Amino acid sequence: MRTPVVARETRVRAPHPLRTEGLRGFAPWAGAAVLLTCGAVLYGTADRWQGGWSETAVETHTALLITVPLAAAAGCWQGGRERRRRTEELWTTAVRTPLARLLLAALPVAFWVVAGYLVTVAVALLATWPYVRGDRPQLTLLPGDTAAVAAGALAGHVVGRAVPTRLAAPLLAMTGYVGLGVVAADGSAAGRALTPAALAGVGELPVWWQPWAMAVWTGGLACAAALGYAARRRAVALLPLAAALAAGTLLAQSGDGLWHTDPLTRRQVCDTSRTPAVCVNARYAGMLPQVSDALSGVTGKLAGVRNLPVRWADHGGAQRTGEAALPAVTPLGWSAVRGRLTDPERYAREAVDALALRGDCPQEQLSGRALTADDAVEHYLAPLPVRDRLDGSDVHDARLREARARLAGMDGHKRREWLSAYFAARAACRTKEIPAL
């Protein structure tokens, strides 16, 4: 006798609603919009940041001016979805609570916009890595930035549910962009401290707790808005609101004290095989061979000359005794792009200008003899053929050409003595003691 076969009922487990929302809804498109928009902004300014870790961190942080309003607009559009579909009454009959329904629709958008921003940051870091000439990766701001993007999406979702108009999303994006930009650029110290997109300076670092306080500030406000709108017991919203206010108070009271100079910026890396020595900021230590090569023609002509400064140094524009200011390679995109000097000849001419004019003499003390000597020295040490072609044929230009020719035509010993006397007089602003040409 054959045993009957009993068919077993197999249950297909339905996917979790969060998975469905996250993979098939509007959320992935919102993440793609953040990725493409933020990526396009960074691509257009690549010359300014590609090649420096600090510059890359500043640019990706400043991109929050666009990313946060865009995330808020995406959340707002998602929040108004049921109204556009006219299914609000149907959702009121669902088993889930209003808060669960809100989070079910809001969290996928928040996840995808954060993912889009993080992918953009990762691509920017990878694009910078081959061209870095010093410094180290700076990811300190990333927790606060990530929280701000997620908070923008969640708060925008609440606005989309509360404001019954299709124009809420674009208006929120424009208002957020203008508001963040105005406060970040022209606000008070307290206002800038409370802004997630506050403009950071290259070579500046936040105090260790600033990103976490910013995360509590922005995330607490967004959570308070969501709980106040959809929670069954709205008094629960007071908890994240209190945490946000405590973090905001701490940020506002600290003001500009939230930032400090990177200790690496105060260090110099030097090539002492030349006179004067050539020192670059430690953040760009890898560019020292390029800078030293660009100035090799100048230092070769200065061999045996006395009364020179000890070194060229890059202190961010500050000049110290016994030093000449080295032309800065920053901001990137001008003198240096992707770890390379853009115009070594012009860079050498700027270094000679700093060497000859380090005395910073008042204009009234600069006689015609001093100006003629300055031009002759600059032309001898770092000639610019383009400038020679622009010289005119009047009496003044003829005098300059004559002085250049006299300095270049001196024998080596006489020229070294003349240059030694010139640099001594120029450094002490005794321009009347500059020997004639």
What do these coordinates show?
The protein is mostly helical and 437 residues long. The chain has 20 helices and eight strands. It has helices at residues 17-24, 27-44, 46-49, 53-62, 64-79, 81-85, 88-92, 98-128, 142-162, 168-186, 189-194, 210-230, 238-254, 288-294, 296-301, 344-356, 368-381, 385-390, 395-409, 412-427, and strands at 204-206, 259-261, 268-271, 277-281, 311-313, 323-325, 336-337, 340-341. The strands form three sheets. Strands 3-4-5-6 form a four-stranded mixed β-sheet. It is elongated, with a radius of gyration of 31 Å. The mean pLDDT is 85.
Task: Give the percentage of residues in beta strands.
Answer: 5-15%
**Mean of residue pLDDT?**
85
Uncertain regions spanning at least 5 consecutive residues = none
Percent in helix: 55-70%
Number of helices: 20
**What overall geometry do the principal axes of the alpha carbons give?**
elongated
**How many DSSP E strands?**
8
Report the end-to-end length measured between terminal Cα atoms: 126 Å
Q: What gyration radius follows from the Cα positions, in whole Å?
A: 31 Å
Q: What is the helix/strand order? A: HHHHHHHHHHHEHHEEEHHEEEEHHHHH
Give the class from helix and strand content and strand pairing: mainly alpha
* Sheet with the most strands, sense and barrel status: 4 strands, mixed
State the strand order across the main sheet: 3-4-5-6
